[in-house]
């Protein structure tokens, strides 16, 4: 009876084997990619050997091994691009792939050799190394819609162009058909026309005959003085 129980236990162990977990690690081309793997170390006697392989974990050892350690130091290394940078004595046996390439994509096996039957800790990792993303967006093109800062002599604008109102021949004040020969009246008309063209929204009082206002003022004062003298005389 006992022999049958032992045989069943052995068959069950052979069929089930070690527990295997799977993880996915994604990296970029040209970057260092770290594939995690740890085991528990309670004391110095718990430090053990392990290996990394380029395939799923087999029943023993590692398929296509790339690095080995006895728990204290690296004993075998397929390439300098594969390194164990963790603290081996504390159970950190994570694999670091330097300068990752697309060819590094695939399945990696981390096998920690625990003493005893079917006690090995197995972890399969799917590593995906992608090309670095390159932005294809075109540079933003801004259309200038603002003039330069105050104080600047350049006022450039591609869509907002200030245009002062132009004065057509029909809108301009009508002047004498005969050319001016330097007379005061012609000079005053020309000055008023230039001011009207510079700022059409401002209407300036006519200044063609400034002496006329002076004569009116003198006449008014003389009349008031005459009335005052007559009033005094009558009283």
TrEMBL record:
One of its GO terms (cellular component) is membrane. Residues 138-181 have a biased composition (Polar residues). One of its GO terms (biological process) is cytoskeletal rearrangement involved in phagocytosis, engulfment. Pfam families: V-set (PF07686). Residues 30-135 form the Ig-like domain. SMART domains: IG (SM00409). It comes from the Eukaryota. GO terms for molecular function: phosphatidylserine binding. Residues 1-21 form the signal peptide. It is found in: Membrane. It is a single-pass type I membrane protein. Keywords: Disulfide bond, Glycoprotein, Immunoglobulin domain, Membrane, Signal, Transmembrane, Transmembrane helix. Residues 138-182 are annotated as: Disordered. The chain crosses the membrane at residues 213-234. The keyword Transmembrane helix applies. Belongs to the immunoglobulin superfamily. TIM family. This is HAVR1 protein. The lineage of its organism: Eukaryota, Metazoa, Chordata, Craniata, Vertebrata. The gene is Havcr1.
């Amino acid at each position: 009876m006992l022999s049958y129980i032992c045989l069943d236990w052995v068959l069950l162990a052979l069929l089930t084997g070690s527990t295997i977990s799977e993880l996915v690690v994604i990296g970029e081309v040209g970057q260092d990619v770290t594939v995690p793997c740890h085991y528990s170390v309670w004391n110095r006697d718990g430090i053990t050997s392990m290996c990394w392989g380029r395939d799923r974990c087999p029943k023993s050892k590692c398929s296509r091994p790339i690095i080995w350690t006895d728990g204290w130091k690296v004993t075998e290394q397929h390439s300098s691009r594969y390194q164990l940078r963790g603290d081996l004595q504390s159970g950190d046996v994570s694999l670091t792939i330097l300068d990752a390439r697309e060819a590094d994509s695939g399945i990696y096996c981390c096998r920690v050799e625990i003493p005893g039957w079917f006690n090995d800790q197995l972890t399969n990792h799917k590593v995906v190394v992608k090309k670095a993303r390159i932005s294809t967006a075109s540079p933003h093109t801004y259309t200038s819609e603002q003039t330069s800062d105050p104080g600047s002599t350049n006022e450039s604008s591609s869509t907002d162009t200030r245009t002062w109102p132009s004065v057509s021949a029909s809108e301009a004040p009508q002047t004498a058909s005969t050319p001016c020969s330097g007379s005061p009246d012609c000079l005053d008309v020309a000055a008023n026309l230039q001011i009207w063209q510079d700022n059409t929204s401002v209407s300036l009082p006519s200044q063609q005959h400034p002496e006329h206002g002076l004569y009116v003022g003198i006449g008014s004062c003389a009349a008031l003085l005459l009335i005052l003298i007559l009033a005094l005389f009558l009283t």
